[in-house]
Amino acid sequence: MTDQETEHIAQQLLCVGNRAVVMERYLLRRAWGIYYAIWALSILLFIYLPNLLNPIRPVLLQDIAFGSSYAAIIAVSGYISGLVFSRAARAAKLQGDLAGNFRRNFKDAVLNYTTLILLFLLVILLATGFFKFFLGVFMEAVILILVAVYVYRWVTRSLGKVPPEAALAIITFILSDICSTISVIVTRGAFYYADIWIPTVAAWFLASIISFANAGDELLQNISQEECN
Asked: Are 141 and 98 in contact (CB under 8 A)?
């Protein structure tokens, strides 16, 4: 085999590997798009579910209904999110193996259960009525900030540079968390709490749409640049 033939084969392998990376990013952006949509719906249920559960009496039964309902929302949303990212990871791993790219760090893109633990902690505190006190409100704000930081961390680890839709989702989440906490402290009640989270719900649904649209556009653009001859 001549040096020219060897160089040509090496270039082909490099091109195939680059195409696999492009497909990996496409799968991840689609997975994030599904993630935004799932949790947008979950946040919507969180803020309006109390309207359905408030009439329940006695108060103990109401607290149990709150806790179990919120736990069910988190469990279902977390399971679907994990399933989506796992499938994306398996598909990308196959792409990488076919291209001779045997990296294993893609599994880092799969969201683990740290976020779910924090959210379940929120549910426990909600069920105990702890958030009726200032310390409880403060703890809720801190936990939600940690969730936002965690999402940011996994976006950067899986996609590198934070895409616009991720920035939109994370920023609105943090702003709603801060503003809703301030409203509870100032008004001594949750009068405006749900309304303040509506922009986040809208932003996360929009982030989902943008993520799907950009994933397809980016795939077409990068694939055309990585044509293997």
From this structure: no
Which among 30, 21, 17 has a CA at the least distance from the CA of 208?
30
Q: Return all residues near 181 (Cβ < 8 A) that are at least 6 apart.
A: 137, 138, 140, 141
Tokens coding 189 = 């009640």
Could you tell me if residue 111 is left (phi over 0), alpha (psi between -120 and 50 degrees) or otherwise beta?
Answer: beta
- Per-residue confidence of the chain (229 residues) as pLDDT tens digits? 565 555 544 455 455 555 656 677 788 888 899 999 999 999 999 888 877 887 888 877 877 787 788 888 888 887 888 777 776 666 555 555 544 544 444 444 445 556 666 666 666 665 555 556 677 778 888 888 888 988 888 888 778 788 899 999 999 999 999 999 899 888 887 788 889 999 999 999 999 999 999 887 766 665 555 555 5
Residues 145 and 177 sit within 8 Å (Cβ to Cβ): yes
Contact 136, 130 (CB under 8 A): yes
CA dihedral (54, 59, 62, 67) positive or negative: positive
Which tokens hold the place of 196?
Answer: 């303040």
